[in-house]
Amino acid sequence: MTRSTIVRSALSLALLTTLAGSALASKAPEAPRSPDYPSVRRDGVGEKRAKLDALELKAFDSSLLGKLNGWTNGEAPSAEAMKDKVTVFVMWANWRDSSVRAVQNLASMQEAMSAKGVQVIAVHDSKNFDAGKQMLSERGIKILSAHDEKGEFRKALLSEQNPDIYIVDKAGQLRFADVDSASVQNALDILTSETPEVAKGRTAALIEQYKAEKAEKERTKATGAVRKAGEKITVSFKLPDESAYSGVLWSKKNDKEIVSQLANDIQDQKFPVEFGKDEEWLSEKPDFKGRVLVVDFWATWCGPCMRSKPALEHLATKFRDDLVILGFSGYGTDRKVDVERYLREHATEVFQSFDTDQKIYKQLQIQGIPTVYIISTDGKVRWMGSPLQPEFQKVVEWTIDRDPGVKARRDAEASKLKTRAEK
To answer: Which of 168, 240, 297, 365 sits in a 20 to 30 Å window from 14, CA-based?
Structure first.
């Protein structure tokens, strides 16, 4: 058992019921895409998903717009007209209810976010275009629409059904290919927050991330043959002294104005909470030594907390050897029974604890949630803020990559595995 019975039983059930689904069934892409946004789910599995991934982070071919005709509610946009805008293409057919709903929802999003540069283009199936155009008119949907008469536009984007949704960022890059309808708002929130310069820089950053992940796989390849899948290696090692940490280029601290709205700013200070006194564990207690710690303060009734869960689960899974994420509940009106019910119904890789008397919340002067602390292996808070901030996941990865204690633990584990292999 690697968590409490509550957490583990929920995870086992979820794994069994989703093995046929998208995330676990798909292969990891062999080229960089946009995996740094776990809140943006994409459709497709296996080889098909890999081909869609290969379209992402490439310049959108605006000449494809020339393959469309029958433009209504405006003319075909030029490449110049798409600059500084976030453009959503939705493949639809008037006879398919799910695609009609997608068009209606996207039209509402365009209306709400047009000031942020969002424009939606509805691309109708080759069949029944006139009926589709009439439907848009009758329902008062005033977005750009066009006819993919020969199906060439869809073919170029590997679209095979209605609806399929593709999003181009402000720098003209196809950032998200075949987005799940439920994730479009998350994608738009991300892309509208970027300037064209920032959007363009994402490609280089993701390629570097991909290279680093590939190098990490090579690093562990030699020991993989003697380490069982999911095995935790218990080793004895000494954490580096203070000088090793003082020489590290840590991430930039979060903005004080943002932090002040959440809790007392203790960045670059020792995390003052000593675990084992005031909390009640709802999972097993993790091994903190030699692992970066993220402490997440949340509640079952908190909407933003729920929106941050996918990112936290993604990190907990991706860096399970080097990272401990600890969820702290008990804020406000949250009761232990509420949290236990939530954990029974939702699989999690995050360790869980309950602040029964809100002593820890008060000690840290937490005023709003979700609030997270990123703590290096020497116990210092390197960053604190909201897990919904765009830079949060990058800071976690940055901290893991540079933490001397993580390296010391990795080296000790590698040495033990080498000895095991030689026997």
So the answer is: 297
Distance CA 175, CA 160 (A): 19
- Of 96-100, 101-105, 110-114, 206-210, the one with minimum mean pLDDT is 206-210
Ordered by where they begin, the domains of the chain are 40-195 (3.40.30.10), 241-422 (3.40.30.10)
CB 183 within 8 Å of CB 81: no
Do the Cβ atoms of 395 and 253 come closer than 8 Å? no
The tokens of 419 are what?
A: 């000895």
What's the CA gap between 280 and 328, in Å, rounded?
10
Quote the CA–CA distance of 220 and 364 in Å, as a whole number: 38
DSSP letter for each residue of 111-132: HHHGGGTEEEEEEE-SSSHHHH
Check if the beta carbon of residue 66 is closer than 8 Å to that of residue 147: no
262-274 pLDDT per residue, tens: 999 999 999 998 8
**Contacts of residue 130, Cβ cutoff 8 Å, sequence gap at least 6:** none
Cα–Cα distance for residue pair 423/417, rounded to 1 Å = 10
CB 383 within 8 A of CB 399: yes
Q: CA nearest 387: which of 306, 283, 272?
A: 306
How far separated are the first and last CA of the chain, in Å rounded? 28
Q: At 7, is the secondary structure helix, strand, or coil?
A: helix
